[in-house]
Amino acid sequence: QVQLTESGGGVVQAGGSLRLSCAASGSIRKIYNMAWHRQAPGKQREFVARISNSGSTNYADSVKDRFTISRDNAKDMVYLQMNSLKPEDTAVYYCNAPNPGVWGKGTLVTVSS
CA separation (Å) from 88 to 5, 21, 29, 63? Predict the structure, then answer.
């Protein structure tokens, strides 16, 4: 079963940008959807963005027009470009393959005001 490892988190000022990466231990070519979720302190995990194998994308309203999800099947990588970051984007960000139901361990993003 594929394993997912996130990287790229850190501390950034409000208005700044970060690019998160998700490395898969195996091929993601046959995994139709790949997604990012996040969990802020004291809150439930929430959906952020999803990308299909055909490249179609969906975003949470809270990140639309600021975040961009992409995938590189040849490199078995998924990315989340985050621009115009806000303090409320502070969370642990998780990479997810909904089917087969695999989650990474997360990477922490902290946005300071």
Answer: 24, 20, 33, 10
One digit per residue, pLDDT tens: the chain, 113 residues?
A: 899 999 999 999 999 999 999 999 999 998 999 999 999 999 999 999 999 999 999 999 999 999 999 999 999 999 999 999 999 999 999 999 998 899 999 999 999 99
What count of other Cβ atoms lies within 10 Å of the Cβ of residue 30? 9
Q: Please check whether residue 30 is in contact with residue 97, taking contact to mean a CB–CB distance below 8 angstroms.
A: no
C-alpha triplet 56, 11, 105: angle, nearest 5° = 55
Give the contacts of 2 (CB within 8 A, at least 6 positions apart). 24, 25, 26, 27, 28, 31, 97, 100, 102
